[in-house]
C-alpha cells in the first residue's frame, strides 16, 4: 500500500510540474506555431546537373548568403564534391535522356522518395546529341510535368533553355540546341497554370562552349557560375523574395525592364556591343524591346539573339526572339550588336510586355 501511495504521489507531482511549466511559459509558448518545413528543391537532369554539376553548389551558397536558409535540395543521388560545403542531393543522372526517363516511367519513383516542392530541370542535352526530334523532347517534358503534378498539384517548375553544345563528334548539335530552345518558352506557357507555374529560364544566351565548358558540352567553373546566376532570380522569386540587389522595388506591379549597354570591342569607325535586359518588375514578362539611340550618326548594322527593326529616322529597335522573351522577375538576358559609331554615342532604353 505504501508503494502504491508513493507511485500516486510521484504521478501527481509530475502532473503539477507540467502544469506549472505551461503556466510559466505563458500564452505565447502555448500558442507557438511549429517551425515551417523547408522548401524541397529537386535539381533534375543529366550529367550537366549531376556529374558533378557544381553549379548546384554555387546556387546553394548564393541562396544561403541571400537569406534563403529554409531550403533543402533533394534527390536520390548524393553530392560528388565541388570544393565548398553545400546540400548536394540531386537527380542528375549522367547519360540520361529525358525521352527515356519519360518512356520508362522513372520520375514517379524519384518524386515519391524525395517529395519536392520545386523542380529545377536542365534536361535534353543527350537527346539532342542522340538526334531525338524536338517534338519528342517536348512531349517528354510534358509527361514529366504531368507526373510532377500527380505527385504534387502545386509543383513549381523551372525549365532551362539548355546551354549550347559543340562536341567534336556532333557538328549538327549546336543547331539542334537552338531549335529546341526556340520552342521551350512557348511550350512552358502552354503547360503553366496559376497553381503550378512552368517557367522557362534562359541558360543559353551569353554561354560560350569555348570559354564556359571543358569539352564543348559540360560546364567548367565559369560555366557553373553562369548557370547558377541564371537559376537564382527565378528560384528566389518562387521562394517569395527576390535578390536584395535586384533593382525592382517590393510591391511594384505591371511589366518593367531595364537595359544596360557595354562595348566589348572597338575599331576605327565602329564597335561591337552587348545589351543586357533585366526584368525589374515583380512578375514575369512575355516579351521586351530595346530602343537604341545613336547620337551623332551611325547605325546598328548587325544583331544576334534579337530581332532588329530600323525606323525611317535611323533609330534601331531590337525585340526578343521567340525563345528569349520570357523573363522571370529579376531574370535577364542579353544580345549583341555591331554599330558603325563610337561606343560613347549609344544610349538604350527598354519596354516590357506582361505575361
Description of the molecule:
This protein is of the alpha/beta class and 355 residues long. Helix content is 33%, strand content 25%. It is built from nine helices and 14 strands. The protein has helices at 2-30, 47-50, 55-65, 98-103, 107-114, 125-129, 134-151, 173-191, 221-238; strands at 39-45, 71-73, 91-92, 118-122, 156-161, 198-202, 257-267, 270-279, 285-294, 300-304, 307-310, 316-319, 332-339, 346-354. The strands form three sheets. Strands 1, 2, 3, 4, 5 and 6 form a six-stranded parallel beta sheet that branches. Strands 7-8-13-10 form a four-stranded antiparallel beta sheet, with no helix packed on it. Strand 11 (307-310) and strand 12 form a beta hairpin. Helix 3 packs across helix 9, helix 5 packs parallel to helix 7 (134-151) and helix 7 runs parallel beside helix 8 (173-191). The radius of gyration is 26 Å and the shape is globular. Residues 1-30 and 241-253 have low confidence and may be disordered.
Computed CA radius of gyration, to the nearest angstrom: 26 Å
SSE sequence, one letter per element:
HEHHEEHHEHHEHEHEEEEEEEE
State the low-pLDDT regions, or none.
1-30, 241-253
Counted by DSSP, the helix tally is 9
Percent range of helical residues: 25-40%
What profile does the largest beta sheet have?
6 strands, parallel
Q: What is the structural class?
A: alpha/beta
The share of residues in extended strands comes to 25-35%
Oligomer classification: single chain
**Mean of all residue-level pLDDT scores:** 84
Instruction: Give the N-to-C terminal Cα separation.
Output: 79 Å
Number of strands: 14
Global outline? globular
